[in-house]
Amino acid sequence: MPPAEATKPTFVGVEGFEGEYGGIEFGNEEASLSEAFEGFDNAFGGGLDASEFIATKKKTSKPQGLGGLEFLTAGGTAPAAADKGDGKTPLENLLVEKKKEMTGPEMFITEEISAEFRESLLARVAFKGTIFLRTLPPKQANGKETEFSFKVEGTSRIKRAALMSSCVSSVGNGIFHVRTPSKEEPLPVIKFSLQPKLTPLPLRVRLVKRHVGTLLSVMIQYASNPELPSPLSNVTFILKLPVDPTLLKVSPKAVLNRGERELRWHIPDISLKGPAGKLRARMPVEVDSEEGEVEVYGTVKFAGQGAFTLSGVHLRPVTDGIAHFSEDIHRYASGTYLCN
């Protein structure tokens, strides 16, 4: 809820908005807010409906080697586990501490997707993936090294990959051999990036702005990739505002942070094949549209996990039926996800 001061009447002297206002108004002003964007339907003006994701449909591909393979002389460590709200990234919040007792080495993949949309067009995209190895804890391993081979499949989208040469080597044909002392934290044994044109997008977003006189109307539209393994949940949309608004109308309800000059919408679930979602805001600004434009942009934060990866990369035993490791849950999250 807004602080008590925000509910007190405030005199607004902006032309067309003169009068006393009761702070911030959160409501479903569907009619008035929709009028500002008349002509923009759920198909995102013919450019951002869910059908555009059809190109990301997963295809069964033959095992291929890792293109652009190079070796790293040193590697980082896995992001530490963190509670939500502590400033960590969505991906770091998903890397939670293991509670169950391990019986052998485990492997999993984390993926981070960054994108920038300019209206309905995708301007930039980047995808970073990391294959982690979790060994038995040193106390449980009793000084025994972790050593086995594994296979990486589904690498047709990979642009570049790098190995942590101190503990893993390439045998060829997508097969890798790992040998390392036991560690407390997961080891990033392979890092990879995807070709931009083959990068899967979990979410397409579009920001539409209408600046007429001293009235600014903004709408964010979003549509999920219908080919995701599971629907996105707990998605946060953040709209950076040009001013600290004295009068604000939003739909649906949002949280205003005056210090950061931003609006936040929390969406519990986004349907895979449902209609495009809409987030709207309207406020008076000091700059008249004839004098110049005001800058607004939005960011998106999301994270997910499951048995499948967004990249299509798979971890397999070298010999069918004989696995020297178990596969843990894979994670993915947004990096820098912008719309402007």
UniProtKB/TrEMBL annotation:
InterPro entries cross-referenced by the UniProt entry: MHD, Muniscin_C
Domain of life: Eukaryota
Residue ranges of every copy of the MHD domain listed in the record: 102-340
PROSITE patterns listed in its UniProt record: MHD
Record's protein name: MHD domain-containing protein
